[in-house]
Model the fold of this input.
Amino acid sequence: MLKIGNVKLKNRLVLAPMAGVTNLAFRIVARWYGAGLAFSEMVDADGMFYDIQRRKKEFATNAEDAPIACQLFGARADTLAEAAKRVVDMGADIVDMNMGCPSFKLSRKNAGAKLLSQPELVGVLVRSVVSAVDVPVTVKIRSGWDSVNAVEIARVVEAAGASAITVHARTAKMMYGGAADWEVIKRVKEEVGIPVIGNGDVASPLRAREMLDETGCDFVMIGRAALGNLFIFRDCVEFFEKGTVMVEHTKEERQRALLELWEVCKSVGDARLSDLRMHACWFSKGLTGGRRFREEVGTKKTVAELEELVVENFC
Ligand SMILES: Cc1cc2nc3c(=O)[nH]c(=O)nc-3n(C[C@H](O)[C@H](O)[C@H](O)COP(=O)(O)O)c2cc1C
Done:
């Protein structure tokens, strides 16, 4: 039985947290396609105390969205602990702590990946959240801040009581450039007893299998490869279970998947023109006529106009 703490998971496939993308609708559809666990967009722990409406929007969930890891960012033990209690009350099955985001928006507050340069503080923060909630607490890190220290951080995180650790195998300094160094995931896995979620550059079922085999990690987290391509979870399931390799998805399949996602966006009350534009562009990537379609997407001024384009003239 696959588990993180006491939370049971149906497979080894995890949807990555992606700010501006992995909202409730996106997560629900990712699960339909096979994701066994999904992470929310990152939620500002300090913001819980002054902009609760915005936080509620960032972390809306429902019964179809389980199991769900709600990701918090922050650098203060007291607010992180209090925010963790609140998101558990709001439905989180797992509380995840962001120690991997390299953006200045977080690092100027000493949060995100900046914490990796302060192992002692990492321990304090994780202990504080673990003691505040009854659900499993997980931590998402990078290989390090400007140099690799993931193994040291992983030991601290485990000793502080976390139930799993995600390793995005790039330093913060690398941002998204260069190749992820999976060797770091392997070393973390060898060092700790808690489940390890490997992350970085998994863009196909074969790469997912390779990450599991080469690093020994317990779960594989997929981010960018799921943009406009939620099929990747189903393709991984098919490949893991039957060895079937899906070569490509047709224009019709992509159009259907886009409209399906859009219907869910509408049903959960999260259907903004900007989101439909973003998904329409991603789902058309690589298709003949995709460029012309994306240019037209940019000219549509209302959701109704854009929907009509997707239905009647998708690539
Ligand atoms: C648009 C976007 C938003 C992201 N937002 C978050 C976030 O909120 N929290 C986080 O821990 N990582 C975030 N990430 C990083 C991803 O979770 C993941 O670690 C990274 O993309 C590497 O995985 P991949 O190669 O499968 O994309 C984001 C990545 C992207 C592309």
